[in-house]
């Protein structure tokens, strides 16, 4: 426990206090500046590996090497700015996923977080190193599949698991219809199911809730359910240290609840974004023909894609929102100011402490 009575998130020999992992946000939304600032508060900072280098301006022939070295530089920068916990988020759907994992292992990051697919062979890259491996799942079945595979092939279990619900920003691990028709399970329901699976192992796998978590009271609710901690991404966009262009942050500040919308992404998944004129165009079926130079995603067919999602998100990172959109969680419209990371974390800790104290008082009265 820390001085606020808040339980720390324990992942093996790592102690994350307060129990918050900052979610990885690509392209170039969460880089070294944000991750290190978050890590300096005691939370875990995460670099999003997707598009971390300026791939859209790359003129060479070996894009994978460029991507890997760009990530390596970002990890080293983050480590130079903090002694805290630094992780890397790597999408399984990336064509150079394995290359980015190898670079992260070489640079001795504290944790590797993998979503956008099941990281079935992730442990084989560790080379004996004690780097925490944390898959992102959207169902208890996905965790069971990963655990069976890792146990049988690598004699290992995940060091923790992140359960991402439907209210997260960016690409979502659900069908477009289930998201737009609101037929998915709630995050609370999925977390309950995953905790049952996670607790069936010895020792139990820490479960981290993610997607739509915005206030300290939200964190308290999931801790009460048995989650070991939470992952928050959207809330960290409107901070001074967030690596993205100010126009991207301003889109959050300008957004209203009705501006948060769902699109069909070229990668075959629904995506949650902030509505703008560009989003309206693609919803009306307008296409932006392109020649694919990147082949960055296994799930993208450039011959059929209406636009290049990588280029669009790169434009967003540069603040060119007339040519792109900002990914955002369902609560992005509640962002009202840009503050330093430390101020944000202090506020979350205060809210969480108050929620836990109120819960304790309510329990004692009963």
Proportion of strand residues: 15-25%
Shape verdict: globular
Helices, by number, come to: 12
CATH top level label of the largest domain: Alpha Beta
For the largest sheet, list the strands in their spatial order: 3-11-10-8-7-6-5-4
Helix content: 25-40%
SSE sequence, one letter per element:
EEEHEHEHEEHEEHHEHEHHEEHHH
Whole-angstrom Rg? 19 Å
Helix/strand class: alpha/beta
What is the total number of structural domains?
2
User: What oligomeric state do these chains adopt?
Assistant: single chain
Measured between the Cα atoms of the first and last residue, the distance is 24 Å
Query: Taking all residues together, what is the mean pLDDT?
Result: 92
General description of the model:
The protein is of the alpha/beta class. It folds into two domains: 9-245 and 337-360, TIM Barrel; 249-323, no CATH class. It contains twelve helices and 13 strands. The protein has helices at residues 32-39, 63-81, 97-106, 140-154, 176-180, 187-198, 216-225, 234-237, 246-254, 277-283, 309-317, 341-365, and strands at residues 9-11, 14-16, 20-22, 44-48, 85-91, 111-115, 132-137, 161-164, 170-171, 207-210, 229-232, 260-264, 270-274. Strands 3-11-10-8-7-6-5-4 form an eight-stranded parallel beta sheet. The longest helix has 25 residues, at 341-365. The chain is globular. 51% of the residues are buried. The mean pLDDT is 92.
